[in-house]
Fold:
Amino acid sequence: MQAFAKVATHDLLRVAPPRRAIAAAAGLGYDGTMPDYIGTRAENAKILGADDPQPVTVLDAVGEVSVLLICDHASNRVPRRLRDLGLSADVLDRHIAWDVGAAALTRELAGRLGAPAVLAGYSRLVIDCNRQPGDPTSIPETSDDVGIPGNAGLSDGAAEARADEVFWPYHHAITRELARLWRHERPPILIAVHSFTPVMNGRPRPWQVGVLWNRDPRLAVPLLARLRRHPDLCVGDNEPYSGRELGYTIDTHAAAAGLPHVSIEVRQDLIAADEGVATWGALLGDALAPLLADPSLHRAELY
Ligand SMILES: [Zn+2]
Structure:
């Protein structure tokens, strides 16, 4: 039994084949910088099958603005081999699986701003792209009091396969897009798009939109001011979540490099339908565009 377990573990460790081998199989030279996966499935994937979509979607820029939009919780999809994690379709439609409306809003904003965008391809219940792998909420066993049967008692190998095939392709794509912008344009700005539920723990949330930030005020503070010009809007400053407590993707890709950044949260009921997406795309796009065009913002500064 022990020998069998060893073989199984060893096999799982080979989920990520050597980069040089991938490059050789693809007829490419290996220059030491090619990531293991950029929007492709590993040959010996454990999670993603041939009929599963790619783990990341990259929307190309239509303008020359040095801004990248990202959407960590864009999708409620679960790879076929994971059998819906043992959940019903109703549960997978709920906010615990994704940020309702956030992908559509990200696409709308990308079009309006002419910016590229990177969207995660699978549900946060498969692996949360906004958590450090290993964090207990990275592959949650429960979410909002709902047990996730497919996440109970995962082996290291199974958790690492999710990171290799779902989490890292998304983060590699963000790194690649930011690097391209930085090489060819000014230091880029990173904007994360999320959505939140109208009610949490029985309490209605008054905000329509929230601006999340930690130490770098360069984009968040003027964005808050512009949004607060709308007299009928309740704008959250680090509400309903605080950028001071949570922000793996933003902290890793922007804050650590000194790139300007912000996370924007829109209430889900406002962007659940196309009409709301267009309205909020216009409102946020109008608020952001003049700020993003300011050359003084496009500087790498550590806070
Ligand atoms: Zn989110």
The first helix runs from residue 2 to 13. The first strand starts at residue 56 and ends at 59. The chain has a mean pLDDT of 87. Residues 72 and 129 are 6 Å apart (CA to CA).
